[in-house]
Design a protein that fits this description.
Elements (H helix, E strand, L loop, with lengths): L1 H17 L4 H26 L7 H32 L3 H21 L7 E6 L2 E6 L4 E6 L1 H11 L3 E2 L1 H7 L2 E5 L3 E3 L2 E3 L1 E4 L2 E5 L4 H19 L3 H4 L2 H10 L1 H6 L8 H10 L10 H11 L8
Helix pairs in contact: 1-2, 2-3, 2-4, 3-4, 3-7, 3-12, 4-7, 7-12
């Protein structure tokens, strides 16, 4: 199953890396990739969570359609991230994050075999906020992925409280270059966390900030991974009172580890030829990227 799930990502990676060479063509390719992959993930997830009395084809097509719909909102988030780099105002991240959260919620609903409107979520700081329109319940739970990234960030940088409160994303700033797995970098990002060198000149700081903000949006899009384990989650809740109680306060998200695992499949490639990096750079800079073969 894991190998099969890698196939659409590897195919899309090869297409976006090798074929389109102008900015418009590259952007179009990423949009097609994103919609196609989310449609497939939504359809497969819906089948995994299919009820016994439901018809497989109908379930798949509904999930695929909703997955494609959610991807549309994610594409809008991608387009707006460029304004963050150009206008240098954090408010533009709020617009991208809002659109991305709508899209990711729809994709997770699709993969969970729910109606697209049933459950909505977004991240604020360490918390994942969920609102269920069917049961009319609200939950605020800690995200372990964000907690881990925050611990990692604190080793090298300090939290910018004002910017973090404004954006809902935890923004850590250092006075100088950062060490990222043995490499000196200006910044890096993960699950709702950005770590960046605040001493960079504005014409370097904001393009890099926008690029890393794209990574935050990308990690959030792996919510389908949790939906694929909905039945396992239900079984654990029924068997373990401890797990059931912990779930009230902790959202055991798989976003971070899934993004990390897929990123590592492209580690041998040069930085600009890795799918996640390539997408982030394309939309944050709106410049055609060099060919990779």
């Amino acid at each position: 199953m894991k190998q099969l799930l890698l196939i659409p990502f590897l195919v899309c990676s090869l297409l976006s890396i090798s074929l389109a060479q102008t900015f418009e063509k590259q952007r179009r390719q990423f949009i097609v990739n994103n919609i196609g992959v989310n449609a497939l993930l939504g359809g497969v997830g819906a089948l995994i969570n299919k009820k016994p009395n439901e018809k497989p084809l109908k379930v798949f097509l509904k999930g695929a359609g909703q997955g494609a719909l959610g991807s549309g909102f994610q594409v809008l988030a991608n387009h707006n991230i460029y304004n963050l780099a150009q206008k240098q105002k954090l408010g533009h991240y709020l617009l991208s994050n809002f659109s991305n959260s709508i899209g990711s919620s729809i994709v997770q609903n699709a993969a969970s075999n729910r109606n697209f409107w049933e459950r909505w979520h977004m991240h604020y700081g360490l918390l994942r906020l969920d609102y269920d329109l069917v049961s009319r319940t609200f939950q605020a739970r800690v995200s372990p992925s964000t907690l881990f990234m925050s611990y990692f960030a604190f080793q090298q940088a300090g939290l910018n409280i004002r910017s973090s409160l404004l954006t809902g994303m935890l923004i850590f700033e250092s006075a100088g270059p950062l060490n990222h797995f043995g490499t000196s970098v200006g910044g890096f990002a993960g699950a709702n966390v950005i770590v960046i060198n605040k001493d960079l000149a504005p014409n370097e700081y904001w393009p890099l900030f926008a690029h890393e903000a794209m990574h935050v949006l990308q990690v959030e899009r792996y919510v389908w991974a949790n939906a694929y384990l909905n039945k396992t989650d239900t079984k654990l809740s029924n068997k373990s009172k401890l797990y059931s109680n912990l779930k009230k306060y902790i959202y055991f998200d798989l976003n971070g580890i899934t993004a990390w695992a897929l990123y590592n499949t492209q580690w041998p490639h040069p930085w600009i030829c890795r799918y996640i990096e390539r997408e982030a750079e394309l939309f944050s800079s709106r410049k055609a990227l060099p060919a990779c073969f």
